[in-house]
Amino acid sequence: MRSLEGSATTSSSEGSVASTRWGRVSFSGADTVLAPDVAFVRAERLPPRAERRGYLPLAPGLMVEVVSPSDRAGKIQQKVGRYLDAGVRLVWTVDPSARTVAVYRPGHPPLVRHQGDTVDGADVLPDLYFPVGDLFR
Q1: Cα–Cα distance, 118 to 134 (Å, whole number)
Q2: What is the CATH number for 65?
Q3: Interval 21-36 mean pLDDT
């Protein structure tokens, strides 16, 4: 899997967060490109800035999909499965209609978090945690 660098990034000492323009994902040997709403890559996994042209040969640590009313559940599940198969360690699907966040990690069953629950960054972003309700204010 590879991510495309573009201008919609925010970086810190922890890593880089990117919107769709940067976080495009292509799969080796396939003509498929998937674009999550948000992707995060830890700083130590990024090549030097001067070498970040085109597609980067790495899987983001976190990918976030925001579910729209027109999205079909099966299509979202297929995307999540492809991200995990490609090496993404944490996927969140945010459903504004249901006000939930589904958390996916390789080798673990999905976990649906509701308002009143907390979401965390697991081992990808261990210091990140927030109430699910904060996403829907």
Answers
A1: 10
A2: 3.90.1570.10
A3: 57
